[in-house]
Amino acid sequence: MNxxxxxxxxxxRAIACFHRNHDAACLECLNLIKPGSAPARLVPVMQATxxxxxxxxxxxxxxxxxxxxxxxxxxxxxxxxxxxxxxENASGSEKALKQMSVAMQECRKMAPGQVETxxxxxxxxxxxxxVSADRVAASLNxxxxxxxxxxxxxxxxxSTSGDARSVAAACEFxxxxxxxxxxxxxxxxxxxxxxxLYLHMAKLLLNLDVDELDKLFFDRxxxxxxxxxxxxxxxxxxxxxxxxxxxxxPQSYAPWLAxxxxxxxxxxxxxxxxxxxxxxxxxxPMLHLVNVYGERDAFPAALNYLDKVEKIxxxxxxxxxxxxxxxxxxxxxxxxxxxxxxxxxxxxxxxALPQAKQGIDQLF
Length: 364
Hints:
Structural class: mainly alpha
Shape: elongated
Distance between the termini: 78 Å
Helix content: over 70%
């Protein structure tokens, strides 16, 4: 049977207050622990971590425990503050590079378990600030391990900068993360996760000016591998294509269709057809094709897709008035071509529509 449940809960609360830097609350909990209880054996050591020097002498066992659990990281904190200041002034300066080395030395002495974490954070900050990797490696005594977590952190940091070159570099690191994450078993190859990454990279690139993006792409090809495949991560069209191939969902197709339609109507038409073929019950690609064929006066094709839309959702807001417009356009075209019988047939269809009995202001 537990003889000291309340005393143990006081000790747990004291430890929680200690880690939150609530010294007064920590001491209050410790003072409430009854002498002679099992938790009371830890009270002198915990009090000594808060009150310096200890209120009473510690025995050898308590002294040994205190030495293993309590230390001051003030010196490390000071060096890190200096490093922050150096980064703010000029992250790639000699002073900043020297301070990196000093901070790392202090971390190895005061918190050896955090060396790799600190090294990673410094390397990420330097990557975002475009500091030479060789100089950073020299200051840190080697770069951190290039694992998936490292690539992801750099990619995220670069993504938030808004600068075109940084965003392009972010997409390259997202691609590095994709490949490394598959190798480390974060997710399988050619799955939904990779599709999500392709879509994320594409949306990042859409925030950039088209001419600026083209310049970055061709600069990469000129100074490096001339193959376009080597820099696919700078091509929104290719990224959308890959995302839709792996995960053909509306959230993948919709931004691809919107992006491509601005560049070339024919390309948008092909994407809408591909979307409709894979997902025949999605309305968005069919409505796109209704508009494309309607603008070309290809009324039979437009009406064919409109029939499909109305069978799925006859009350869709985009459908209202569309048949009236398409039939009216077809009738006018028949009249222009002197195909009066076909024109009369279209007028009969228009007359049967509910919209024909409404005022023109109520059609749309």
